[in-house]
Amino acid sequence: MRNIARYLGQGVIYALIAVLLGFFADTPAYRHFDDDKAQLTLSLAHSGQHVGECRRLTAAEIAALPPNMRKPLDCPRGRVPVLVEVELDGRIIVRESVPPSGLFGDGPSQIYKNFVIPSGSYSLVVRLRESARDEGFDYQREAQVAIAPRQRFVIEFRAEAGGIIFTGAARPTKSPSRG
């Protein structure tokens, strides 16, 4: 009889713990931003062009190298910083020169930024420079975008897919261009 009471007591306590865990797992509801707001996210990892030109090695220079290091070209490892510019309704919200990652400055430049904005329709222009030039941009994309409440609109860059990519409800006004 005593064992039955003990097992019944344990069952009640376990059930109470399960109910409390279930309650606190769902309550209170967490909101990343207000119901009438949206999120604009800039996320890219892209390698700029090499700092310098590759140089063709002479036959004597190649012969002087160890057998496993022999290659016809000598290219610098370093890369130029990537310049990113995001313009929302004529106002620049991001203009950042992102240095390359890596110990020798030969990795991709990485940027990740979030902006909480009111939902609505916007004119969005994104520009990216991956070369060593002083003015202008290598990639540019313009679009009229409609961002719904609580929507996340993402700006990415993939060179193999044509450059700047918008993930969300976008109506392009001009085709993506490479400068």
Write structural notes for this entry.
The structure is a single chain. With 179 residues, this protein is α+β, with helices and mostly antiparallel strands. The chain is flat, with a radius of gyration of 27 Å. The chain has two domains: 30 residues; 121 residues, Immunoglobulin-like (Sandwich). 16% of the residues are buried. The strands form three sheets. Strands 4, 5, 7, 8, 11 and 12 form a six-stranded antiparallel beta sheet that branches. It is built from two helices and twelve strands; from the N terminus they run αββαββββββββββ. A hairpin with a 2-residue loop joins β4 and β5.
SSE layout and pairing:
Layout: H1 2-26, E1 37-46, E2 55-56, H2 59-64, E3 73-74, E4 82-88, E5 91-98, E6 109-118, E7 120-129, E8 139-147, E9 152-158, E10 163-167, E11 170-172, E12 177-178
Parallel strand pairs: 1-9
Antiparallel strand pairs: 1-6, 2-3, 4-5, 4-7, 7-8, 8-11, 8-12, 9-10
